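Quick one, T. Sequence first:
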Amino acid sequence: MKYTFELELSEDFHMLCDIFRIKPETIIQKIISRISFPFYYSNLNDKERWATLLLLDYLGTDHEITDEEFDFHRPYMDQLGDSVMGILRKDRDATKKAEAAARKVMKQWHKAVLAERAKYIIDDLDTSINKQE
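Structure tokens:
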């Protein structure tokens, strides 16, 4: 999936890119490519988990999630952890298998979120149609 957008680069980031001759889009793409709950949960000692930690930090500090939203997400987060840990308890080297199991949960979670959002859109549409009658 490709997106085109503008970013405002901080002076510090821009200078570091200049110093090390790195294209800003290269490092940004590398960070984005490493954000993954399946990888994060399956590779408990891997240093590449830090990219997902950036996302989790954002969720914890800058992005408000209501209790109702969290209650909706919690079963999927629990299922994600349980499926990965169930595999890794049996075989600590089965990270690829654990990631695959986690991706299945992520797809179910994503589908449920989209269905829930569609329901709200349809409910709002029904409400606005009834008001016009």
